[in-house]
Amino acid sequence: MLLASAVVVWEWLNEHGRWRPYSPAVSHQIEAAIRSSDPRGGSVVLGQVDSRLSPYIIDLQSMHQFRQDTGKMVCGVFFWAGGGGGGGL
């Protein structure tokens, strides 16, 4: 269980092999979806939080990000919990 003071940072793997953080609002949405989803999985539509990410969806079962308009898997997603920034920051 995470401490109330812990910061959760969700990141995605870009085409250059670097982990990049999602915004705090997107990370919050991912966390909320995980808490409320079916244990077998669910999804997060990133465009509901950030219109620039409207083509993307995260499948919570596989923990992969997909581009909805092409169906292409973009990358894996990862979270880091701690008192400060994540691994890609």
Explain what you see.
With 89 residues, this protein is of the alpha+beta class. It has one domain: 2-Layer Sandwich (Signal recognition particle alu RNA binding heterodimer, srp9/1). The protein contains 1 helix and 6 strands; from the N terminus they run ββαββββ. The protein has one helix at residues 24-36; strands spanning 7-13, 19-21, 43-45, 56-59, 64-67, 73-82. Strands 2-1-6-5-4-3 form a 6-stranded antiparallel β-sheet, covered by helices on one side. Strand 5 (64-67) and strand 6 form a beta hairpin. The longest helix is centred in the middle third of the chain and has 13 residues, at 24-36.
- List the secondary-structure elements in sequence, H or E: EEHEEEE
Radius of gyration: 13 Å
As a percent range, the share of helical residues equals 10-25%
Q: Which secondary-structure class do the elements indicate?
A: alpha+beta
InterPro entries: WWE-dom_subgr (IPR018123), WWE_dom (IPR004170), WWE_dom_sf (IPR037197)
Domain WWE: 1-79
GO biological process, one term: protein ubiquitination
Protein name: WWE domain-containing protein
Secondary structure: elements and pairs:
Elements: E1 7-13, E2 19-21, H1 24-36, E3 43-45, E4 56-59, E5 64-67, E6 73-82
Antiparallel strand pairs: 1-2, 1-6, 3-4, 4-5, 5-6
InterPro entries: WWE-dom_subgr, WWE_dom, WWE_dom_sf
Organism: Sphaeramia orbicularis
Domain WWE: 1-79
Structural features:
single chain, 89 residues, alpha+beta, Signal recognition particle alu RNA binding heterodimer, srp9/1, 6-stranded antiparallel β-sheet, 1 helix, globular
